[in-house]
């Protein structure tokens, strides 16, 4: 980029003379696909490798206030996510149905279920807290319409309960509306901001402008028409 600015609490982190450190963020997690749960996709992608490591290696803590979130996901999945070591010493994730009559490798379950499974693992392993920023690209893509609302509710509750900062990119009006409605009901709307992107019709088609909308999502809906 030709120029870059980064501020935290009105302090400029990036300047020509120095590069500072963020005090309120210790960890950034980026998710662009639930396929990170598939071991065969890891070979050539360092980002998926890191995400997969987060989902299979615990920090040795599960915050007490996160237990409600884990129970919510378990109810949605009608089961839980477990893990065990293979004969080759690799950690493998499994979906265990509540009745204990079904146990499948996570990579074999439906893609929509994987979307909840990776959040389950990140919460259980202690990676989501108030020092984490979680970035998710189009989380609604593989979800049933009803699960879109449940996923939006879960993300809002993760922020409210754990303090995790979220950056979400979405093209789904139902998901966007759900985020706003649930954030309002959970009394965290003041901490929620919406943006809309538009491409620069100039030299480079990969350049975008992001306009801050505050709490107003009408321009987003208008852009879908």
UniProtKB/TrEMBL annotation:
Question: In the record, what terms sit under GO molecular function?
Answer: ATP binding; ATP hydrolysis activity
One Pfam family name is AAA_21
InterPro entries given for it?
A: ATPase_AAA_core, Bact_Antivir_Def_Nuclease, P-loop_NTPase
> What SUPFAM superfamilies does this protein's entry cite?
P-loop containing nucleoside triphosphate hydrolases
State whether keyword Chloroplast applies: no
- Tell me which UniProt keywords the record has, alphabetically: ATP-binding, Nucleotide-binding
Domain ATPase AAA-type core, chain residue ranges per copy: 21-176
This protein's name: ABC transporter, ATP-binding protein
Q: Which organism is it from?
A: human gut metagenome
């Amino acid at each position: 980029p030709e120029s870059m600015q980064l501020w935290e609490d009105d302090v400029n982190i990036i300047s020509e003379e120095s590069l500072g450190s963020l005090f309120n963020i210790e960890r950034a997690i980026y998710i662009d696909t639930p396929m990170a749960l598939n071991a065969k996709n890891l070979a050539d992608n360092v980002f998926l490798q890191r995400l997969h490591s987060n989902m299979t290696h615990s920090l040795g803590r599960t915050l007490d206030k996160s237990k409600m979130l884990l129970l919510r996901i378990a109810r949605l999945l009608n089961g839980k996510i477990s893990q065990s070591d293979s004969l080759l010493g690799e950690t493998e994730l499994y979906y265990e149905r509540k009745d204990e009559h079904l146990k499948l490798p996570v990579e074999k379950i439906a893609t929509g279920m994987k979307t909840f499974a990776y959040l389950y693992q990140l919460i259980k392993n202690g990676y989501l807290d108030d020092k984490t920023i979680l970035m998710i690209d189009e989380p609604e893509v593989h979800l049933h319409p009803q699960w879109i609302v449940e996923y939006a509710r879960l993300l809002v509750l993760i922020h409210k309960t754990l303090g995790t900062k979220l950056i979400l990119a979405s093209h789904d009006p139902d998901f966007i509306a759900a985020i706003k409605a649930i954030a309002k009901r959970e009394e965290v709307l003041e901490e929620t901001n919406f943006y809309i992107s538009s491409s620069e019709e100039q030299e480079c088609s990969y350049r975008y402008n992001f306009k801050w909308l505050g709490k107003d999502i009408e321009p987003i809906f208008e852009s879908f028409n």
